[in-house]
Design a protein that fits this description.
The protein is of the alpha/beta class. The chain folds into 2 domains: about 10-180, Class I glutamine amidotransferase (GATase) domain (Rossmann fold); about 200-310, Arc Repressor Mutant, subunit A (Orthogonal Bundle). The protein is built from 14 helices and 10 strands. The strands form 4 sheets. A 4-stranded mixed beta sheet has the order 5-6-10-9. A two-stranded parallel ribbon has the order 1-4. Strand 2 (about 40-45) and strand 3 form a beta hairpin.
Length: about 325
């Protein structure tokens, strides 16, 4: 793991802890974990917390299995020629490369993401795409794999990426054991939204509709419309529409579509349901209606989304 002063601490310790968890599950160690920084010893990370780097960038081995690059204020860290040199050298020597959060900027600066798909923290998506136009930035993915290069969204998404690496290396049983040990969801697919309709901060405002907004994601498969939702909120349709926009910032129809897209994405990536079955369970009513929603919001089709992100061995 390559780190730098001010790096996000969870970008470093999160993925490494997942890999260390594999060592705990096996009789013989699976991974040797190393943190390299500008110099050996104390490394100041985010929040003023310190880690102990095992050595300087110059200690990078001639051959290594996986190179990880931490995130944080990467744009500022890009000015460090030693860090950039370590990224380039490590990329030539590594069997695979993984960036966490804004660590994708180091890979981009090194030219390693040109013509490839990549993910980063949602706050950095626009900057990454603008600064490096040759990259196909996935704006809402938790993590992306393109060849030997993996990249993830922010903070805890690095743990999802690490679990995917574990699954590739050691199979489902070990990955599941590590996930259970760390009380993690196995596995949030790479294509799952970085913030879904029912997890976004605005989803549970402290208002009259808060209980309804918690209810909607669990009932998206039902025949919901403004009349139905207004009746459940015990309001007239006109007053309901005004209150809904005031509390959520969007129309009921837009909110419902977003919630249904979240459900459809989870089903497409983690189940073997046919696309028509996914459309029905997510409440779209028809496969064509779901296809139009995917094209409008995600610029892809449900089939292409599944092909890109589906986990192996999905269940119905």
């Amino acid at each position: 793991m390559l780190a730098f002063e001010g790096a996000q601490i969870l970008d470093i310790v999160g993925p490494l802890q997942i890999l260390a968890g594999v060592n705990d599950e096996r009789a013989a160690p699976a991974y040797t974990l190393t943190i390299l920084a500008e110099k050996k010893g104390p490394l100041l990370t985010s929040g003023g917390l310190r880690l102990d780097a095992d050595g300087p960038y110059a200690a990078l081995p001639r051959r290594l299995d996986t190179l990880m690059i931490s995130g944080g204020n990467a744009v500022q860290a890009l000015r460090d020629p030693a860090m950039m040199a370590a990224v380039r050298a490590g990329a030539r020597r590594a069997g695979r490369i993984a960036s966490i959060c804004s660590g994708a900027f180091f890979l981009a600066e090194a030219g390693l993401l040109n013509g490839k798909r990549a993910a980063t923290h949602w706050r950095s998506v626009e900057l990454l795409a603008k600064r490096y136009p040759d990259i196909d930035v996935e704006p809402d993915a938790l993590f992306v794999r393109d060849g030997k290069i993996w990249s993830s969204a922010g903070v805890t998404a690095g743990m999802d990426l690490a679990l995917a690496l574990v699954r590739e290396d050691w199979g489902d049983d070990i990955a599941l054991a590590v996930a259970r040990r760390h009380v993690l969801f196995l596995m949030r697919p790479g294509g799952q939204s970085q913030f879904s309709a029912h997890l976004a901060p605005e989803a549970y405002p402290k208002g009259r509709l808060s209980s309804l907004l918690r209810w909607i994601p669990e009932h998206v498969g039902e025949d919901l419309d403004v009349a139905c939702l207004a009746a459940r909120a015990n309001m007239s349709e006109r007053n309901f529409a005004r209150a809904f926009r005031r509390e959520t910032g969007e129309t009921p129809a837009r909110y419902l579509e977003r919630a249904r897209l979240d459900t459809a994405r989870r089903l497409l990536t983690a189940s073997d349901l046919p696309v028509a079955g996914v459309a029905a369970r997510a409440g779209f009513g028809s496969e064509e209606r779901m296809r139009r929603a995917f094209q409008r919001q995600l610029k892809t089709s449900p089939g292409a989304f599944r092909a890109r992100f589906q986990l192996q061995g999905g269940t119905s």
